[in-house]
């Protein structure tokens, strides 16, 4: 019997308006994603990745003799950094530390005792982010050559760790325009790195100490240089690459300060991001792990299950359509199909929502009348500009929408997936989960 922790605050309400068989399938999908969120808790995965015996710290098979270090410093940034800090404090005697997160406490209300927590904004940076980043830089620079700096990195870190070469206003504007253009995270972070003093390996270059980074990845394929914009990783991107991204999305030539920094970098007046840094970077959790867990939980519940893909990307509405079509043509019944990744949304309307909600809105048109349930959930609990983690839909969703006079296509055109699913009572509400391993889609065919 699976223990359901009710991380989904409106779990029962999401079952209440469906016939018995559909409600059972919905319960299965929601139970699977709940267990995934529980298992991927940042504090839990960090603690499980570390084991200390005497003076030896083992992390994912890598052993580090901690007796060689005089002091242990911790810095972190990202939505999971508070939970990660709690775990590190349980295992190591930390001398000093600070992290920047979107919440002052972990999702369960706990906070670290020695490591300070600064609260910052996401996805657009704020003055608070800059002030907090200055505090982290002080710790990194104060650490000596006989010390260790443990860096806790997770999704959201690109916004939270912020020391821009341009004004905050310009940094916010270019970030906002790129996000709304539907660019990839790799493209966005290429630009961010070249407008920053700390991204793209530059934080690591500030330290004389041994640097160990523990990373909860929110980027497909786990490329170190793009996770949180790779502050402790070598960087292969260039100012020329950053200009190419801005040109691609029609922004180059429209932002004088941003154009100026990139142009100076291309002329060699600003040093390129480092091609080599001295840091040990270790991935301790990622989307593939979350998807495997979802498939395992589904099997425990009696479903045949399969992880179909952990590289779902592109425009959310079309990804949803493709996932729905895959489920439709599959001959299996009482089956669960798991997908993972991170899509994008080209914002043309003035509505409210996020990539997970828009993915499901794109899917339900394809599964009308089918015995299929699909949900898409952001593992951080916050999808786009809404308070929902995602949404759930089924073969009856289009019929229910028609009965209350709402048109899916109109809401899709206005990027207003939140209000569409709010009227159907099909938003998934978790609040901030304190982790981030991108998105997971669970499809139940019954």
Features:
446 residues; alpha/beta; glycerate kinase, domain 1; Rossmann fold; 2 domains; six-stranded parallel β-sheet; six-stranded mixed β-sheet; 16 helices; 15 strands; 19% strand
Written overview of the protein:
This protein is of the alpha/beta class and 446 residues long. It folds into 2 domains: 12-39 and 287-445, glycerate kinase, domain 1 (3-Layer(aba) Sandwich), CATH 3.40.1480.10; 43-163 and 198-237 and 273-285, Glycerate kinase, MOFRL-like N-terminal domain (Rossmann fold). It has helices spanning 20-39, 42-49, 81-91, 127-142, 157-160, 168-181, 185-193, 202-205, 239-248, 256-266, 287-300, 316-329, 355-364, 397-403, 408-413, 417-423; strands spanning 50-53, 56-59, 62-65, 72-77, 96-101, 116-119, 148-153, 210-216, 280-285, 304-312, 335-341, 372-378, 390-394, 427-428, 439-445. The protein has a 6-stranded parallel sheet with strand order 6-5-4-7-8-9. Strand 4, helix 3 and strand 5 form a beta-alpha-beta unit. Helix 1 crosses helix 11. The longest helix has 20 residues, at 20-39. It is globular, with a radius of gyration of 22 Å. The relative contact order is 0.14. The model has no long low-confidence stretch (mean pLDDT 97).
